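Recall that a protein's primary structure is simply its ordered list of amino acids. Everything else, from secondary elements to tertiary packing, is in principle encoded there. The following example makes that idea concrete.
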Amino acid sequence: MRCLVVQTAFLGDVILTVPLLDLLRRDPRTSRIFVVAAPPGAGFLEEQDIADRVVTYDKRGRDAGVGGMTRVIRELRDLSAEVALVPHRSFRSAYLALTSGARRRVGFDVSGGRLLLTERVPYVTGVHEVERVAALAGPLGIVLPDGRVPFELSVPDGAGDELASALSDRGAGFATGAVVVAPGSRWATKRWLPDRFSAAAEKLSREFDTAVVVVGSHEERDIGAVVSGSISSGAADLTGGLSLKALLALVSRARVVLSNDSAVTHMAAGLGTPVVSVFGPTVPAQGFAPYADRSAVVETPLDCRPCGRHGSDSCPLGTLDCMEGVSVGDVVSRALELVGREADGA
């Protein structure tokens, strides 16, 4: 069985697709696994070495427009996939599955391209996205495990050396056991206040007697600079300066990760690293909380939450009370609980 998985959403969504790919790989009927993903998700999957081939579809860059899609379709058709699984719920993703030539096309019943699918799986609310996506393997006869679906990410070979080099370039030592802070997000309303990230990280740094490392994408460098610059004891700011490979190494060796509802949260969960995630406009019931036992979500109960499936560029009410209501003490206390320490004066 030659399987194509179409997941061209954000990096966090791609990370949550790894358990489905693992289920496919473990099934003896699966001969080849192909994935089409947008950057940086495609690069992440390459590093995980979980697919036989990853096709990069840069839909907002070099592949934008009809010409780019035609190139990708041509590449997908050459794979001769028999089955296409479509976790992403857009019409475009279902269209890619159709034009790939796969005779069986399995996706969600709420997909914008559901009429292009041959089999539709109910999109169940109230369960985690890992479990929803894994359910797409059901029509193939793959039985899901009882309880939690296995979710395990790997750290690529050479990642530690690459991380050490990046830290050295910034005059920092090797960050084993560090407090890792990821204060960014694609959506402005999903970002906890930078000064509170700084305060929480500094308290935990003193408690654990360890370093603070701030991470994020190239576009999040301004936020990273604010957070790292507000920590009186100093912090290594690697925002925009780490490859995904090096980031995996850093997160895997962290004492604890502080993050918004973003890709780094899911990365920490898949690596088994304690993670505290601040949720604002979204809620865990939507299915995107960290999928791990050693995790915690800190949030403010409000009637206006959730205010959408994703965050947004501005609060619909103009208040951002969901983030303002999360205190430094809340985050620090949960972090200390996760690593087996009691909050003392946090």
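Confidence is low (pLDDT under 50) at residues 342-346. Residues 84 and 135 are 14 Å apart (CA to CA).
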